[in-house]
Design a protein that fits this description.
Layout: H1 2-5, H2 14-24, H3 30-33, H4 37-53, H5 61-78, H6 91-108, H7 116-119, H8 123-166, H9 190-200, H10 207-238, H11 240-244
Helix pairs in contact: 4-5, 5-10, 6-8, 8-10, 9-10
Length: about 240
């Protein structure tokens, strides 16, 4: 797991785990989660459209649930819109995650594959490297895209602030109490919390630490939610009377 997820919350222990937990807990406060309802609604409506487009033909529900889970995760925790349900290119993330998970689970029950040196010389080991590389590249793109979004917003807010200050009467003193850099530190979304910890040095967190946590939450938040949604859809199919409600 470390090969893929590094030292994230799922795989870390001791002081490393405590450090990450302390930093990330505020990002999952109910006040923050309640702001995401609109995103969940929009993505759900897009999902309904995709189902209708199938025209009654059988579809792979698991992959479809994987796409909406990815959309919800990126729109909320990562602050980046990737439109996975509409963009077929994002399916490669779903497939790579599925296959990497299957490979790791299979390896777990085969002791002759536990040795790293020999495992990565085999085709199954090389395939795992390829799948993890696909996933990591997408994770890194999400981090960089969020950094660009933050930089643009900061520039926009700075420009707006300067414009407002220029309109003030000379007898008024300017104040930075409402500065975007000085408020809302505890109301940041998951990825913003990580980026600020790395960039402002207020918390002992490195670039690699951030990448590990993003890899962990992209996997945990996407894979588990996909399974839960797919199982729910299956149950609704078995019980149409509940579906009607």
């Amino acid at each position: 797991m470390h090969f893929w997820l590094g030292q994230g919350l799922l795989t870390a222990c001791g002081p490393r785990w405590q450090k990450s937990r302390k930093l990330l807990t505020p990002s999952f406060h109910f006040n923050i989660l309640s702001r995401f309802c609109d995103a969940f609604t929009d993505n759900s409506l897009t999902l309904v459209e995709k189902v209708h487009e199938a025209g009654g033909v059988s579809i792979d529900v698991f992959k479809l649930m994987g796409l909406i889970a990815l959309d919800n995760l990126c729109d909320t925790a990562m602050g980046v819109k990737i439109d996975a349900l509409r963009d077929p290119k994002n399916l490669k993330y779903i497939i790579a995650t599925e296959e990497a998970t299957h490979t790791m689970m299979s390896r777990m029950f085969k002791p002759w594959l536990w040795n790293d040196s020999s495992f990565y010389m085999l085709s199954i080991g090389r395939k795992l490297r390829k799948d993890v590389d696909i996933v990591n590249k997408i994770n890194h793109k999400i981090i960089e895209k969020r950094r660009i979004i933050r930089a643009l917003k900061e520039k926009e807010e700075q420009s707006k602030s300067e414009s407002e200050e220029s309109q003030l009467d000379d007898s008024f003193e300017s104040t930075d109490s409402n500065s975007s850099t000085g408020k809302g530190k505890k109301n940041l979304i998951f990825l913003d919390q990580l980026i600020e910890a790395v960039e402002d040095g207020s918390f002992p967190f490195s670039e690699q630490d951030m990448r590990d946590e993003v890899a962990t939450f992209m996997f945990e938040g996407h894979d588990t939610t996909t399974s839960a949604l797919a199982f729910t859809v299956w149950l609704l199919g078995l019980h149409p009377e509940c579906q009607e409600k």
